[in-house]
Amino acid sequence: MKPLIPLVLALTVALLSGQAQAGVNSESVKSAFERMHGLAGTWQGKDDEGQPATVKYEVMSGGSIVTERLQPGPKADEAMLTVYHLDGDKLLCTHYCSRNNQPRMRLESYDTKDGVLDFDFVDATNLASEHEGHMHKLVLKNPDKDHLIQEWSWHENGQQTPAVFHFERKK
């Protein structure tokens, strides 16, 4: 009976691990990337302080990437680029930040019903340590074809600072 205990524990851990990652299986990743394709176009809105912002999405490279050009204010040199792409059964994005670092994030969950894509930090280039300032998390909320909310999370010295943008599709 005792030899079965480690086997039962191993199976339980394996099952629970599978349940924890069920939100990002191969099919949901493909569906999330298709949702990203649907964002193509120009969106106008405001940040959480009421300042105007614009974001433009383009599907490029034969549909293999979606680019996002975020203009958070009036200064053109503050625009940032984020590129979304599949890597096998993962959906990744690289954020080319105005702070001269490039965090990569991976889709951790996708709620198809509410259109919520949740990306978390994987690694970064031009970042000496995780304590330096960088974008660490991104949640995209796209409840319908004309509304989008971006919830960015800036991470610096162990502190998280949110930046939220509310957009409507420009028609």
Helix segment count?
A: 2
CATH class: Mainly Beta
Structural class: alpha+beta
Q: Into which percent range does the helicity of residues fall?
A: 10-25%
Widest beta sheet: strand line-up: 1-2-3-4-5-6-7-8-9-10
Blueprint (SSEs and pairs):
Layout: H1 4-20, H2 26-37, E1 41-47, E2 52-60, E3 65-71, E4 80-87, E5 90-96, E6 102-111, E7 116-125, E8 134-144, E9 147-156, E10 159-169
Antiparallel strand pairs: 1-2, 1-10, 2-3, 3-4, 4-5, 5-6, 6-7, 7-8, 8-9, 9-10
Describe this structure in words.
This protein is an alpha+beta fold and 171 residues long. It has a single domain (25-169), classed as Lipocalin (Beta Barrel), CATH 2.40.128.20. It is built from two helices and ten strands, in the order ααββββββββββ. Strands 1-2-3-4-5-6-7-8-9-10 form a ten-stranded antiparallel β-barrel. The longest helix is centred in the N-terminal third of the chain and has 17 residues, at 4-20. The radius of gyration is 18 Å and the shape is globular.
What features would you highlight for this structure?
disordered N terminus, Lipocalin, alpha+beta
Question: How would you concisely characterize the structure shown here?
Answer:
This protein is α+β, with helices and mostly antiparallel strands and 171 residues long. It is built from two helices and ten strands.
